[in-house]
Amino acid sequence: MKKCTFISFLLSLTIACGSTSCARQTTTQTHTIKDNGITITWIQDNATPKTMPASLFSQEAQAVIDSLGMKESGIPSTISSFLVQVGGKNILFDTGLGLPDSRLLKALQSLQISPDNIQYIFLTHFHGDHIGGLLTNKGETVFKQTQIYAARAEYEGWMKMPQNQRTQIEKTVSAYGNRLHLFSYSDTLPENICALEAKGHTPGHTVYRIGRFFIAGDLIHGATLQILHPEFCASYDQQAEQAVSTRRYYLEYVRRNHLIMAGMHLPAPGFWEP
């Protein structure tokens, strides 16, 4: 890749405005985009800088990572959630790590939104850096009025795993009780949100589309590497071959449909537009 082309690619990872209306990134690590009546805000959950170590990726990926100059420093990343505001509703996608290392609640406060003013939370999957913000350190619910949505395939897949891998999930599901809704991909979801099967990272990993926005979950862990080379997986992907197939499919889906990707591990400010 020519140097100027590669620099342009890196710039595309740090801003994704296009024809949309963009707000400045703030000291609370949020960034807002508006498009066709939908407002989406990236919320950085991690309090300290986050990178994905080169060691997370396969031996085959190491030469490419080295060529990107990221062998020692790691690949820029974040732990993020996204707030979507549409039709008078506040909708959160994933909840980050949870306290004490989470910035989610502080960011919501900076946006003048309390946990009780979140109507829906949609989960991409059940890893701890995505569901951790649902419970307090005492195991109590953070969101007292919110309806939670997750893919039935994700829940059922984790329930087949060893007990030590599903303890946090079971506590969370139990705490929210009948406010947690397990959906099938053919179900109609609130506010015309479309849930799409994206398995490979986890058994029922799910991506979402609303308008031009594509909520990617953990489709991408190291954007600078994986958008160029979707064949490389992070070790977090439970089914590597399936994860590669899924990643290739949805990267092309985003390009073909001229969407804006909102990724939970994209570097600041959390968006990528081809």
Put the structure in a nutshell.
The protein is α/β, with parallel strands linked by helices and 274 residues long. It is built from 8 helices and 15 strands. It is 26% helix and 24% strand.
How would you describe this protein?
- This protein has helices spanning 3-14, 62-67, 104-110, 128-131, 152-159, 163-176, 223-226, 240-256, and strands at 21-22, 30-35, 38-44, 50-52, 75-77, 80-86, 89-93, 120-122, 147-151, 180-183, 194-197, 206-210, 213-217, 260-263, 271-272.
- The protein has 274 residues and is an alpha/beta fold.
- It has one domain (25-272): Metallo-beta-lactamase, Chain A (4-Layer Sandwich).
- The strands form three sheets. Strands 1-2-3-6-7-8-9-10 form an eight-stranded mixed sheet. A five-stranded mixed sheet has the order 11-12-13-14-15. The protein has a two-stranded antiparallel ribbon with strand order 4-5.
- Strand 14 (260-263) and strand 15 form a beta hairpin.
- It is globular, with a radius of gyration of 18 Å.
- The chain starts with a helix and ends with a strand.
- Residues 1-12 and 14-19 have low confidence and may be disordered.
